[in-house]
Amino acid sequence: MATTQQVMATTPVLNSPKDWYQWYIALENFADAKGIWDYVNPESETYKYLERRYHDERAEFRLLRDALEKLVEHLFKTVNSRYMTISLGGQSNANMTTYEEFRVRARKPGSRIGSKQLKKWLNLILKLR
After folding, report:
1. What is the C-alpha to C-alpha distance for residues 117 and 57, in angstroms, rounded to an integer?
2. Residue 88 pLDDT greater than 50, yes or no
3. Which of 57, 71, 81, 89 is most buried (CB neighbours < 10 A)?
C-alpha cells in the first residue's frame, strides 16, 4: 500500500495550462474513489439536480424571509409596544427592539433568528391564510 508521501509525489499539481488534463483526470479518479464525483462534476445529472434544488430552495427561503419581515412589521404596527414580547437572541423581554432593529438583526450572518424560527413563522403564516 502506498504511503501518503508516495501518493503526493505522483499526484499531478495544476501549475500551468499544460498540467490541466493530467490534473483533471487525477481529480476525477480521486473524487470517484470517494464516491462523490457525481456531486462535484458539473456535467452530471446529480450535480445539475442539486444545483437546481439549491436555487429553488434559496428562492423559497427568500420568499419566506420576506413574508416573515412583513408579518413582524405588521405586528410592530398593530400591537402596542408595551404588549410586544418579541425578544431576540435569548435576550430578556426588557430588551425589546424596534422593527427596523429586528429586520437588521435577522439579516446579519450568524443571526440567532434562523431557519427554525422561520419555519415556525411560516407555519403561522400558512395557518393565517
Report:
1. 17
2. no
3. 71
The model's pTM is: 0.43
Can you tell me whether residue 20 is helix, strand or coil? helix
Q: Are 86 and 96 in contact (CB under 8 A)?
A: yes
Give the pLDDT confidence score for residue 91 in this predicted structure.
Answer: 47
Distance CA(109)–CA(95), nearest Å, equals 21
Taking each helix axis from N to C terminus, what angle separates 115-128 and 45-78, rounded to the nearest 10 degrees?
Answer: 70
Instruction: Say how many residues make up the chain.
Output: 129
Return the domain boundaries, the chain.
4-40, 61-128
For residue 102, give the nearest of 112, 30, 56, 21 by alpha carbon.
112
d(CA 66, CA 63): 5
pLDDT tens figures, 95-108: 445 555 666 666 66
> What would the grid cell of residue 124 be?
403561522
**Amino acid in the structure at residue 76:** F
Cell of 90: 435569548
pLDDT at 120 over 80: no
